[in-house]
Amino acid sequence: MNQSPRLLVILDVDSTLIEQEVIELLADCAGKRAEVEAVTERAMSGELDFTASLKARVSHLKGLPESVIAETLAKCTVTTGAHKLIEAVQAKGGKVGAVSGGFSQLLDPLAVTLNLDFHRANQLEVVDGILTGDVIGTIIDKPAKATALRQWAIESNIDLKHTVAIGDGANDLDMMNVAGLSIGFNAKPRVRAAADVILASNDLSEAIGLLGL
User: Fold this and answer.
1) What is the pLDDT, as a whole number, of residue 46?
2) Selected catalytic residue, list 14, 117, 168, 172
3) CATH at residue 190
4) DSSP H or E run through 102
5) Cα–Cα dist 149/139, whole Å
6) Which end of the chain is more exposed for a tag (fewer CB within 10 A), N or C?
7) What residues make up the domain containing 142?
């Protein structure tokens, strides 16, 4: 093959594209981190339905001021190698997206910073500057992540066999199953068992060579 195919690379966000779990940082502000962490772990391990667990976790944020969103974003750190991976894919004419069971209020500015081609996440409901403890709009769950990958592949005119999904938890399994190549990163046991490849380190740039870029 004379030229590598254009790729579409889709990343999970929490504990993949960034090093933190945003819902847990937000829960810190409410003094509810332990409760939220317990639900998160069960959800990521596949023990709980994602939508139910999301609503249970977000309910703990009820009454927080909207300002905690910006404060939380400031605490987030982009995973080592993420910039290099994004630049490498785009340099070869590919596209990079992020799809998250987290929140658009944090992913939107992050997507601008990272120059992502696509991004999608849940939306926290805010009324009169206060978090209501609920989410609005379509829930970005496991099937929705796979749907996003398919839609973005069509929009990019990239065959599914040239798509890559990178994630860590049970919520990523559907999109990893749809993708031409699935990569586990910080992988939980179910992802470790299902992924085509597991990155050995916490450096996303290791995927560059793996993708032939």
Assistant:
1) 75
2) 14
3) 3.40.50.1000
4) strand 95-103
5) 15
6) N
7) 8-19+78-210
